[in-house]
Structure formats: C-alpha cells, structure tokens
C-alpha cells in the first residue's frame, strides 16, 4: 500500500484517500489581483482541493541578461522578459492577501517556489506544502534546502530522466518522507502521444512507499481521469477564466466548465474503482434471480442412478437448483429419488452431497 501522509492540515493523501486536486492558477491571473481572487473562488466552486500560484524572486531565478532579453512574443506584457515577468509577479503583501482570501473561501493555498528565495518566502507565509515545478526538479541544491524545511512536497517530473528521478527520490527521502512525485511532460499544450501514463505505473513500482500523481498540460479532461484510474493520488491542471486571453499557458488550461467536469469525473471514477474482492453484489441479486442458471435433468433420471454429464444440462430454471459451476462435481453422485426430465437438480435429490463452502 502506498504511503499516506497529511499534505494539508486535515487532508491525507495516498492509500485509499480521495485524489487531491490542484487548480494551477500559475500566472493566468494576468497580473491582476482581482482576477486572481476570482480564480481562487472558481477553483473552490469547481471542487478543487487547492488553488496554486507560481512565486519567483526574479533576480534569484534569472540572471541580468535573461531579464534584459528583448521579448517580442504576442504574449508579452513588456518589452523585455524582465518587464514581462514583473508585470505578472505579485508582491509579498499581495500573496498574503491571496492566502487570506483563500482561507475565507475555504480552499488550501500554495505556490510553486521558483527559486530558493521564493521558497524562503513561502515557508514564512506558511503554505501547507511546497510544489516543486519541473524546472527545479534536477536543481539539487534547491531540492535539498526545500526538503529540509520539513513541509510536505509535491514534485513534478517534466523534462527529467528516470535516473534523475531516482536521485531525486533518494535526495528528498534522506530528509523528508512526506512527498509525492507527479508524472509530467513539459509541453503546452501536450499531445496525447507524449503523455506516457505508463510512467505512473513505473513510478509505483520504483517508489512503492510514496504516493504517485499526475500533472497534465493536455487539452480536455479524459487523460487526467485515466491517470486517476491508474492510481494517481494527486492531480494538477492549469485553469483559466478564458483560453483566449494573452499568455502562453491559457491554451493548455481548463475553463471553469471543463474543470468542474474534471472534478466530477474524478470523483465518479474513484467510486467506480470500488473493491478488489470479486463476489455477487447485493445490486446483482435481482438479475441473478431472474437470469441465473441451474443444473437440470436433460432426461428422466431414475432413483439410484449414478449421474453422468450427458444426463445433465444448464438452464434458467424454477426452482433454483445447483449452480452451473458445480455441474462437474455432480458427476458420479447417486440420486435418491427420480428426477423428471427438465426438472431442476437440487441438493435434496442427491445422496450424501456435501455442499462446498461458498466464499
């Protein structure tokens, strides 16, 4: 059984607990605090467990030349990449306001710390868990410092090799047992042939003592629901209020009507996963009573006859007789009384018949 742990106060993940659903707002708020709050409310109304943002301390994440690089993308919010990122970056006070709003709404709040200074701030802010974006999963100094903070961690694995993920597992495990790994492919939007859901199964084999999840950038909801059916215990999807808005993530995001359908489908699939014990269920009794078959006499069987298979057949019959799966057990048994042609073969007609224990 995969490890279970408390990801957020009062919310366990792993084992048989419900899948934890993260609404990745990221920077789809367009740098507007009011839109960010509207998206937090949307995430709550759609049934998400957590609203997540992305926090950077830009001078720690980028060098000067990267920030000064001209940015001519149609998605640009400034003439340079630095201007673009500054437009989308909320201040510390704004993050405190967003966290307070999320508490009022009743949804967990966190952010991906996109550099070590951002992690320090989020730690001070008191987020329930750290999300490690794929771009920092092989940033081992960052990963080590973050794991040593003692908060639970959710680690995406986009752009990484399996060997790197083994090293990530060992590094984090040495100081923090409360973490999970998400299968992820870093492409926006993601084509189905690049999703590789089978890696979820491989992670479950390689890391059996931690929950495994899925972070998706594909269009639609079907693939994410399939990931849950394969055992993903945490899922993360980008959300937006409008896919036509400026910004490179919107196209790979889910609008409210899609996200609410995703949550509904995940909860439905979780119900359908049910039990691994195969048995006749109470809901099947009516069908079984109507259509369930019994062993009947193919021909008249005189009292004292030793049964052979050519004397028997299987039909829907009244009254109910031996179930079909016991027909081979009847071979060689002696009948105590005559059984008429087409009559059900019942226990009281068989000499010294010991009914097998049913499980």
From TrEMBL:
CDD domains: SAF_NeuB_like. Keywords: Transferase. The keyword Transferase applies. GO terms for biological process: carbohydrate biosynthetic process; carbohydrate derivative biosynthetic process; N-acetylneuraminate metabolic process. Its EC number is 2.5.1.57. The keyword Coiled coil does not apply. GO terms for molecular function: N-acylneuraminate-9-phosphate synthase activity. Pfam families: NeuB, SAF. InterPro entries: AFP_Neu5c_C_sf, Aldolase_TIM, PseI-like, PseI/NeuA/B-like_N, SAF, SAF_AFP_Neu5Ac, SAF_PseI/NeuA/NeuB. Residues 294-353 form the AFP-like domain. It catalyses: aldehydo-N-acetyl-D-mannosamine 6-phosphate + phosphoenolpyruvate + H2O = N-acetylneuraminate 9-phosphate + phosphate. PANTHER family: N-ACETYLNEURAMINATE SYNTHASE, SIALIC ACID SYNTHASE. This is N-acetylneuraminate-9-phosphate synthase. It comes from Pelobates cultripes. The lineage of its organism: Eukaryota, Metazoa, Chordata, Craniata, Vertebrata.
